[in-house]
Design a protein that fits this description.
Blueprint lengths: L5 E5 L4 E3 L7 E16 L2 E8 L4 E2 L2 H5 L6 E14 H9 L3 H27 L1
Antiparallel strand pairs: 1-6, 2-6, 3-4, 3-5, 3-6
Length: 123
């Protein structure tokens, strides 16, 4: 069964998802760009900008943990929404060693984010 992907339009400054939410989908940027950011100690920390062709929102789907950042559209942005179940079906067919490697990378990324949070609280 092929999953159905949908396109969604977001406008400048519109929130796509929020830190702490459950991940139900990941996204492919078809037009525009997306800012990934966290708010800590009353400051907005920009982690990156996802350009056309980029994918984001995958971490919460891979490891089942809540979103660890916010995503906001920069200008008018068109995204292709890829449901979590579509990614999970692909992962079922993937080499277990590769899956383990991805999980290690995600764990390391989340650990690093915790360290950055601690440091930002001291600033």
């Amino acid at each position: 069964m092929n999953p159905v992907f949908s396109r969604k339009v977001f406008y400048d400054g519109q929130l796509i998802f929020k830190d702490g939410e459950r991940g139900e989908a990941m996204y492919l940027v078809q037009r525009g760009k997306v800012e990934i950011w966290r708010e800590r100690s009353g400051k907005r920390w920009i982690l990156g900008v996802i350009p056309v062709g980029g994918i984001f929102g995958e971490m919460a789907i891979f490891d089942g943990e809540p979103r660890m950042a916010n995503a906001t559209a920069v200008g008018e942005t068109v995204l292709v929404e890829i449901p979590a179940n579509a990614l999970r079906e692909i992962l079922k067919k993937t080499d277990p060693l590769l899956i383990r490697l991805i999980r290690i990378l995600l764990d390391n990324t989340r650990s690093l984010a915790s360290v950055v949070d601690e440091l930002s609280n001291k600033l």
